[in-house]
Design a protein that fits this description.
alpha+beta, two-stranded antiparallel sheet, 9 strands, binds 2-{3-[(4-chloropyridin-2-yl)amino]phenoxy}-N-methylacetamide
Length: 355
């Protein structure tokens, strides 16, 4: 091999050895084999060599090219594996570390309570009805025997929407009763149904949220009595709170849409908050025999059909069952509260026990 070729080989070897990263390595590769590289220049000059030298010089150059290409690729492989070794050393696994927590969602207490209510009344033969949150004045008030200027309207702190034409302004439903009005208009008795859903009143403090949930029920048949009402609600309350001996008391009351009307209390201990004993009474829901005028408003003959209805606040019974002291965090989406009061979706519940 002529001197200039062995010089090139030696110098390239030295430059490769000095290249300790891929960037420097690539500079050597370009300076040797690139378009303006040293070997490329020598190959180009071959054409100008005297013909008798060309053969021998050409063979030597090709051999050198193979040797340099091999050297350069070998250096690249060495640099690659050094880089991998360095990463493996730096990123070593530590099998003693605790596993990262796997984030699973929890069931919101309102959702769980609604599921439980539906499971209990479902087992008694009720369907679950639903309807719109925006209602007409008639479905929300009039059909329920709450006429304009009736004092009960003032208690409802109604959210009104802009009126359309000269009809009364639509409202955000203040209770779930309009859904039952729709049910009575859409299907003939007998009826056994519950409604669970959002309701709205313009009221906001520690015990009131402008959006809250209600559950109402409506049972209509030919010969239902106050006795059926009492049995149904006693069974529900004992099942929901999981206390077979839960004391339940019925107290005469007034609602425009039921006659007679009864408020329902359960036994508890006012001092400790414990349910089921303690000698104190806590109001838990309202109920009554459906007012004949409400049946007539829905095209149902009150001489042939009668029945009972009830209503309760979902937040309230969820708070009592689970010892949740404040209503406001229900709808604040504070992840700490949700972790504390949420329900594991995979854990067994009373819903699996055939209530
Ligand atoms: C309460 C009281 C109640 C009803 C709701 C009702 C519905 C129809 C006809 C008659 Cl369509 N009644 N619902 C009856 C009595 C009481 O709710 O304190 N709710 C939180």
């Amino acid at each position: 091999m002529t001197n200039d070729l062995s010089d090139l080989q030696r110098e390239t070897e030295a430059a490769l050895a000095a290249a300790t990263d891929l960037r420097a390595w690539d500079a050597v590769r370009v300076a040797t084999l690139g378009r303006n590289g040293r070997l490329t220049a020598l190959l180009r000059d071959l054409g100008r060599a005297p013909p008798e030298q060309r053969r021998e010089r050409g063979a030597a150059l090709n051999q050198l090219k193979d040797a340099l290409t091999e050297l350069i690729e070998a250096r690249r492989a060495a640099l690659d594996s050094a880089e991998l070794d360095a990463r493996l050393a730096a990123e070593r696994l530590d099998p003693s570390l605790p596993p990262r927590p796997r984030e699973t969602g929890l069931i919101h207490p309102i959702s769980r309570t609604m599921e439980e209510i539906a499971a209990i009344f479902g087992a008694m033969g009720c369907t679950v009805s639903d309807g719109p949150d925006v209602e007409s004045d008639w479905y929300n008030f009039g059909a329920l025997n709450i006429p304009a200027h009736h004092p009960a309207r003032a208690d409802h702190d109604t959210f009104y929407l802009p009126p359309r034409g000269n009809k009364p302004a639509p409202v955000l439903r203040t209770h779930t009763s309009p859904v039952q009005i729709r049910t009575m208009l859409n299907q003939p008795p007998p009826i056994r149904t519950i409604v669970i859903g959002r309701t709205y009143r313009a009221d906001h403090d520690a015990t009131h949220s402008p959006m809250f949930h209600q559950c109402e029920g409506l049972i209509l048949d030919r010969d239902l009595t106050l006795g059926h009402l009492k049995g149904t609600l006693i069974d529900f309350l004992r099942s929901f709170f999981g206390i077979a001996s839960l004391p339940v008391r019925f107290r005469s009351s007034y609602f425009p849409f039921t006659e007679p009307s009864m408020e329902v209390d359960i036994g508890w201990n006012r001092k400790t908050g414990e349910l089921g004993q303690g000698g104190d009474w806590l109001e838990i829901l309202g109920s009554g025999m459906v007012h004949p005028r409400v049946l007539a408003n829905c095209g149902i003959d009150p001489r042939e059909w009668q029945g009972f209805a009830w209503g309760m606040g979902v937040e309230r019974i969820a708070m009592l069952k689970h010892g949740i002291p404040d209503l406001r965090p229900f709808f604040e989406s504070d992840i700490r509260w949700l972790r504390h009061y949420g329900f594991n979706p995979l854990a067994p519940t009373m819903l699996h026990e055939g209530v």
